[in-house]
Amino acid sequence: MICICIYNHMKKRNLIPWILLFFSLFSCQEKKNENVIFTSFYPIYDFTKRIVGDHFDVVNLTPPGVEPHDFELSTKQVASFYDGKALFLNGIGMEYWSDSLPKDLKDKTYTVTDKIEIRKEDGIDDPHVWLTPLNAIAEMKDILSIVNTLDPTHKEDYEKNYQKAEQEFLSLHEEIKEKRKTFTQNKLVVAHAAFGYFCQEYDLEQIAVHGLEPEEEPTAKEIENILDLVKEYNINTIFTEEMASQEIAEKISQETGCKLEVLSPIESLEEEEVGKEDYLSLMRENLEKIEDACK
Ligand SMILES: [Zn+2]
């Protein structure tokens, strides 16, 4: 594993606890949302939707086109939690804002990654668990047991939905394994270090331009190191992403003649992808691009 960035995760905003405290002091009079499950960002939304079907409204907090690493909750969103049934999080440092939620909101907040073995990137817990279908299944299993408790009357439906999703995700896992057998290249140069679990599961190696958070900037020395690796291992593609800066990736591509290709960390949908793409379709698009780069 080669990651080259300095982690600056701790520079979070001190104002947020005060805003949240303020909202915990009065009750919101807006329309009740008792049938709503909130999800922090896209993959949790996708997985939750598959399990609950139409029995709950699932509301995703991070809007399309917004990078969840840097997302800040609006005060209106915090207020709306009071009436919601539950809030599902990825955890592992993705939703720094959740640490400051008042106790009564924390009581209906669930992290859906507890059964996943967390890998580290440069000594830091890597939050990008959702990028393997097997981890996604583990998350859906967690979601299943939570919604079974929240709404036992529809238990049978939730079990059925889970079984269906599990089959679909397992067949994606098999597809990836089959394609992997044809790869001659095992190194992926990616914009930010989101693909560690994917690479670990399918015996690939991630070389990240930016760190666990997309805005981390590599040093000149680290860029130099990537340039050397690209040449040494005959890498032909540099993967960027829609919502992160491409400047350094472009520089590396210019200097090495590699092509630039967009790989989705499936952290958010783009505006134009809403209703057209989902976790499975984006994973398959990623897989095709990885296959092209590694054949
Ligand atoms: Zn990320």
CATH topology category name of the largest domain: Rossmann fold
The CATH architecture designation of the largest domain is 3-Layer(aba) Sandwich
CATH superfamily of the largest domain: Nitrogenase molybdenum iron protein domain
Number of helices: 10
Round the Cα radius of gyration to an integer and report it: 20 Å
| CATH class group of the largest domain | Alpha Beta
Produce a short descriptive summary:
This protein is of the alpha/beta class and 295 residues long. The chain has helices at residues 16-24, 42-52, 75-81, 103-106, 133-150, 155-180, 196-201, 220-232, 247-256, 279-294, and strands at 2-3, 36-39, 57-60, 86-89, 109-111, 120-121, 124-125, 187-192, 205-210, 237-240, 259-262.
What does this structure look like?
The chain is α/β, with parallel strands linked by helices. 41% of the residues lie in helices and 14% in strands. It has two domains: 32-175, Nitrogenase molybdenum iron protein domain (Rossmann fold); 180-294, 3-Layer(aba) Sandwich (Rossmann fold). It has ten helices and eleven strands. The strands form four sheets. A four-stranded parallel β-sheet has the order 3-2-4-5, covered by helices on one side. A three-stranded parallel β-sheet has the order 1-9-8. Helix 5 packs antiparallel against helix 6 (155-180) and helix 6 (155-180) runs parallel beside helix 10 (279-294). 40% of the residues are buried. Zinc ion is lined by residues 69, 128, 192, 194, 265, 267.
